[in-house]
Amino acid sequence: MGESDDCLFCAIISGRIPSEKVYEDETTYAFKDIHPKAKVHVLIVPRHHYGSVAELAKSDPAELAHIVEVAQSIADDAFHGAYRLVFNTGRDAGQSVFHVHAHVLTGETLDE
Ligand code: 5GP
Ligand code: ZN
Question: Which of 15, 80, 78 is nearest to 47 (CA)?
Fold first, then answer.
């Protein structure tokens, strides 16, 4: 389903590369970031390959809204609903994997 060759996150979603699953459903997969920047650091991705959050917003806004709901529910469980949601967009902003992903940072009080 929209899988891109040599995309790290497509490989993780398909199970070819192992990951620590946090949540999954028909359209969406969530797993622990391998280099956590907070006590709880989860990446949420659509199963379908989109390169950026702007591309996702344009092509499937309902999926973007769903990713926010999943983030909320992870933070409800981890830290009374408080979280930071980050979409790095573009290499110069720190995006290193070009399959859209939401970083959910939660589980502890976050610095500004
Ligand atoms: P970006 O820099 O594109 O916003 O975020 C990519 C994230 O993917 C980084 O936070 C990085 O730690 C994480 N990451 C990179 N490779 C892997 C991997 O193989 N497994 C997991 N679970 N996370 C990864
Ligand atoms: Zn991909």
Answer: 15
Does some domain include residue 32?
A: yes
Residue pLDDT, tens place only, 81-91: 999 999 999 99
Check which CATH number belongs to the domain holding 88 and give it.
3.30.428.10
d(CA 78, CA 55) in angstroms, rounded, equals: 29
Establish if 63 belongs to a structural domain. yes
Which residue has the CA at smallest separation from atom 17 of ligand 1? 34
Catalytic residue positions, numbered: 101
CA angle 16, 77, 36 (to 5 degrees): 50
What would the two tokens of residue 18 be? 């192992």
pTM value surpassing 0.90: yes
Residue ranges making up the domain that contains 25: 8-106
The answer as to whether 1 is a domain residue is no
- Residue 97 CB–ligand 1 contact under 6 Å: yes
- Asked whether residue 70 is assigned to any structural domain, the reply reads yes
Ligand 1 neighbour 63 (Cβ under 6 A): no
